[in-house]
Write a structure and sequence with these properties.
Elements: H1 2-12, H2 16-20, E1 24-29, E2 36-42, E3 48-54, E4 64-69, E5 75-77, E6 85-90, E7 97-101, H3 112-125, E8 140-144, E9 152-153, E10 161-166, E11 172-177, E12 184-189, E13 196-197, E14 206-211, E15 217-222, E16 231-236, E17 243-244, E18 251-258, E19 264-271, E20 282-287, E21 293-295, E22 303-308, E23 314-319, E24 326-332
Antiparallel strand pairs: 1-24, 2-3, 3-4, 4-5, 6-7, 7-8, 8-9, 10-11, 11-12, 12-13, 14-15, 15-16, 16-17, 18-19, 19-20, 20-21, 22-23, 23-24
Length: about 325
């Protein structure tokens, strides 16, 4: 009788690993030879991956962009190497890549040592700073060949330009900029021309945008409800029909990415209601029409920045489940409705 009760209890209370197996299987760590790595994106054919990482022993503590061949495992840096970089993407059709970089900052290297000194102090005192993004005013959006050659600057406005991604047809780029004062979303042609403002929400941050697969909508994050408490929003690509998808200011929601049906999204969220506790970020799934959500990850540590493979059969994301932030992939089974 006791054994039966124990078996029933175990069946009713699956482990975190068992809970993840409902939707994520064949989990693999993709990066390891870096101080930290993350925010990875698949090429249109799924054979290559762009990701950002901090190299060891270079003196630069900030991210650079790397290209990995998924078949051979070969990796090469494709960003200039100086300053900071972030938010890479593959063009859907022409083989070019996109990323944001501050390498044109004439004082880029002067920021290295203060960052290294702060990290050394944190290790000494066993403290960790609160995460923050500095919206570097020298950050601009660039495109390049897949090997990093033929670099071209697509944005030249004063201030921060980053967080860019392509529409599925490759004709447009949606991105974040504070060129007009506030951190708003803009859309421009793929060559950097014809810039038009998408959002109009002053005194807050609007960022992390992605076009839906059909190009009709843009998903993004914003702290317009409360500063630093990011919520998820969707807006039509013409700037109409803006809608909040989340509204719980005790939680932080970010990094939304579309599923192939233009209805569901995968994203990151964590409970911030206890100011003394360190939030544990996990991946979630949402039906944007009904609001129904499903938790996907259950590991200790942060699981963030999820994206789908071109065939939508795999998920790739950034996780600290192994101790440091690295890139992981897994086969994906969508939650049943």
């Amino acid at each position: 009788m006791l054994l039966t009760l124990v078996a029933l209890a175990l069946a009713a209370d699956p482990t975190p690993a068992e809970q993840e197996l409902k939707h994520l299987t064949n989990v693999k760590q993709l990066t390891s030879d870096y101080v930290r790595a993350g925010e990875a994106y698949f090429s249109p054919d799924g054979k290559k991956v762009l990701f950002q990482a901090e190299e060891k022993d270079t003196g630069n503590p900030f991210y650079q962009i790397f290209l990995r061949d998924m078949e051979t495992g070969a990796v090469r840096r494709v960003s200039p190497g100086a300053g900071k970089t972030t938010c890479a993407a593959f063009h859907p059709t022409n083989g070019r890549i996109l990323f944001a970089s501050s390498h044109l900052d004439p004082d880029a290297k002067s920021h290295y040592q203060p960052e290294l000194d702060q990290r050394a102090e944190e290790r000494k005192t066993r403290t960790r700073r609160r995460y923050s993004w500095d919206f570097d005013p020298f950050m601009e959006i660039f495109e390049a060949d897949a090997d990093g050659g033929n670099l071209k600057n697509l944005t030249n406005a004063k201030g921060y330009d980053a967080e860019g991604s392509y529409s599925a047809d490759g004709k447009s780029i949606v991105f974040c900029s504070n060129r007009d004062g506030g951190l708003e979303l803009y859309i421009m042609d793929a060559d950097g021309k014809n810039v038009r403002k998408l959002t109009n929400s002053p005194n807050c941050y609007n960022g992390g945008p992605f076009f839906s697969p059909d190009g009709k909508k843009v998903i993004f994050r914003s702290d317009r409800k409360e500063k630093d408490r990011l919520q998820l929003y969707v807006i039509n690509s013409d700037g109409t029909g803006e809608k909040a998808l989340t509204a719980n200011d005790k939680w932080v929601y970010w990094a939304p990415f579309w599923y192939k049906d233009n209805r569901h999204i995968i994203y990151t969220a964590a409970d911030h209601s206890d100011e003394k506790a360190r939030p544990n970020y996990d991946l979630y799934w949402m039906d944007t029409e009904t609001g129904k959500t499903t938790r996907l990850t259950f590991a200790t540590g942060a699981d963030v920045l999820p994206v789908f493979s071109p065939d939508y059969k795999r998920v790739m994301w950034t996780s600290s489940r192994g101790g440091t932030s690295q890139v992981y992939t897994a086969d994906f089974t969508p939650p049943a409705e």
